[in-house]
Amino acid sequence: MKIKGKFLFKRKIQKESAALPDESRKEQDMRIETYDMTQPEQKEMPDDLWSRIKKHRHLIRNRNATAMAILFVLLFGTGAFLFFHTGSTYITVERVERNDADGTQYLEFGSYFLKYSPDGVSCVDSRSKVIWSSTFTMETPVVDVCESTAAVADQGGTQVYIFTQDGLKGQFQTLLPVEKVRVAKQGVVAVILEDEDVTWVNFYDYTGTLIAENRTTLEDFGYPVDLDLSADGMKLAVSYLRVAENKISTHIAFYNFDSAGQVELNNQVSELNCDNVIAPQIVFMDNNTAVAFRSDGFTVFSGRQAPKEKKTVQFDQEILSTFYDGSRIGFVFEADDSDHKYQMQVYNTGGKKIMQRYFDLEYDSISIQKEQIVMFNEQEFAVYKLNGQKKFQGKYRKPIENILDVRGFRKYMVLTQDSADLIRIG
């Protein structure tokens, strides 16, 4: 390509022509400088060099693919190992010496733990650091926890205390001895009070103001063996035991303290009668779902205003233990397989069996904690996933008083007589 230099270098030519005579200037104006702007020919790259470059690129791609494959296998293998692995060893992450009074117990309490004894109650974290404490004197403290609210009452006495994670919320005294206590998350309390041949089921706010009361005898409603409050405090469920003509039966009643119950006698909105059955335990799973644990199985109740029977499941075997959380119901039976001692079954609130598993640990306690089943005796403990897979089973070096699942990867708090041990299972 040819380009006229006159246009590219005009200022240079003008300076040079200024010093020339007119004739020379004309000649200068007629002079054209040209420059060759074409690209020089590139030499073709040898075929063997192109071949080596392609091989190098291919090698790099193969190395990257191999590295990714190895990484995937390692991650998958680690995940599979952790998922299917059954541990038997543990390491102690931290140990805190206990100087607790005799009979001190621990319960989950929101994001903390509630530590209580006849001498008082404390809120502690997973490292046993005290958040707050409160002292009292009780013969036999009984405790109920609803999320981050707890009620502590003196069984056989008249003291009732209500606590939240911030500390004491309220306290009061009843006129009659307390047999059982239940609390809702806003602090309202239901209690069973003993009065010789008469029993009272009373409902209080956290200051001790009486909201409702129900007087019952063995001849009419029956004896209240258990009760529970919905978390919102609007519904109360009571299981009554009746004895008539040498026959036993159960009367389950639901009370509503919202507008739906105001038009009903004693706020009772629904009931269920069961002949030849005892229901020693009744619990609310959520605000609208309750479960009655019966001597022959369980019954699920559901309803926003007046809970009704939704599903009854009956067993042929004797129930040895029960355990539950907000959405699952568990039972332990003697094993029907001679190779094992026990069998556990877990159901959802629709009455459907979702897990069945044999096990052999001679347990003292069994519970559902944070999506796991934890069981233990003094020397040994085991952890199962809710699908029945065993996660851990092993012996502990000191007698176990309790085991609590805490935050952290495979971490648990093991309570012994003289220490609170934070461990990580293998």
Tell me the radius of gyration.
39 Å
Let me know the average pLDDT.
87
Number of strands: 34
Taken as a percent bin, the fraction of beta residues is over 45%
Let me know the largest β-sheet. 4 strands, antiparallel
Shape: globular
Order of strands across the biggest sheet? 3-34-33-32
* Ends distance: 79 Å
Low-confidence stretches: 1-30
Which structural class should the secondary elements be placed in?
alpha+beta
Give the helix tally: 5
* Helix coverage percent: 10-25%
Explain the overall architecture:
The chain is an alpha+beta fold. Helix content is 15%, strand content 50%. The protein contains five helices and 34 strands. The strands form nine sheets. A four-stranded antiparallel sheet has the order 3-34-33-32, with no helix packed on it. It is globular, with a radius of gyration of 39 Å.
Quick structural summary:
This protein is α+β, with helices and mostly antiparallel strands.
Key features?
426 residues; disordered N terminus; 5 helices; globular
Explain the layout of strands and helices.
Layout: E1 2-4, H1 5-8, H2 10-18, H3 22-30, E2 34-36, H4 47-84, E3 90-97, E4 105-109, E5 112-117, E6 120-124, E7 130-135, E8 141-146, E9 149-154, E10 159-164, E11 167-173, E12 178-183, E13 189-195, E14 198-204, E15 210-216, E16 223-229, E17 235-244, E18 247-256, H5 259-262, E19 268-275, E20 281-286, E21 289-294, E22 297-302, E23 308-314, E24 321-324, E25 328-334, E26 342-348, E27 353-359, E28 365-369, E29 372-376, E30 380-385, E31 390-395, E32 402-405, E33 411-415, E34 419-425
